[in-house]
Amino acid sequence: LHLVALNLPFSGDMRADFQCFQQAQLAGLTSTYRAFLSSHLQDLATVVRRADRYHLPIVNLKGETLFNNWESIFNGNGGEFNIHVPIYSFDGRNVMTDPSWPQKVIWHGSTANGIRLVSNYCEAWHTADMGAMGQASPLKTGKLLDQKVYSCSNQFIVLCIENSFVS
């Protein structure tokens, strides 16, 4: 399953699932992509189909392995990954080195186990208000689910996950 970033950073007010769907289509990717975010309807840990959570590796756009499988992201270690494996945007840029993302931080709105944090997910990703808070992770920590709280006015990286495997 591919983990890919949106082509631009977003504040806490985003239509992330739609953006993931649209940018994947424009990039010629045929499977379904969902935002790597907890929402008011769903915990992050359940975004990927149950049948695909254990046996498929999570890879970047070029097929390099980031995680052994979906479940390994939520084992309580904060989603540790090898920071030497790049995360690419749908248009092929490395979010860790490209200046389009000046802050190397990803939104997620979740606990380290992928459960939604309703107090820290920018009002279900509907506000960029400076006073509202969102859970996010600085990528330099080598964790996708590091537990840091930021104002929803920040423009951060938004990741998308291919949520079901289509051969």
The stretches of 5 or more residues where confidence is low (pLDDT under 50) are none
In what range is the share of β-strand residues?
15-25%
- Largest beta-sheet characterization: 3 strands, antiparallel
Helix content: under 10%
Q: How large, in whole angstroms, is the Cα Rg?
A: 14 Å
CATH architecture: Roll
Structural class: mainly beta
Count of separate structural domains: 1
Number of DSSP strands?
Answer: 8
Briefly characterize the structure.
The chain has 167 residues and is mainly beta. It contains two helices and eight strands.
Describe the structure.
The protein is mainly beta. The chain has a single domain, classed as Roll (Mannose-Binding Protein A, Chain A). It is built from two helices and eight strands. It has a three-stranded antiparallel beta sheet, covered by helices on one side. A hairpin with a 5-residue loop joins strand 3 and strand 4. The longest helix is centred in the N-terminal third of the chain and has 11 residues, at 16-26. The chain starts with a strand and ends in a 5-residue tail after the last strand. The model has no long low-confidence stretch (mean pLDDT 95).
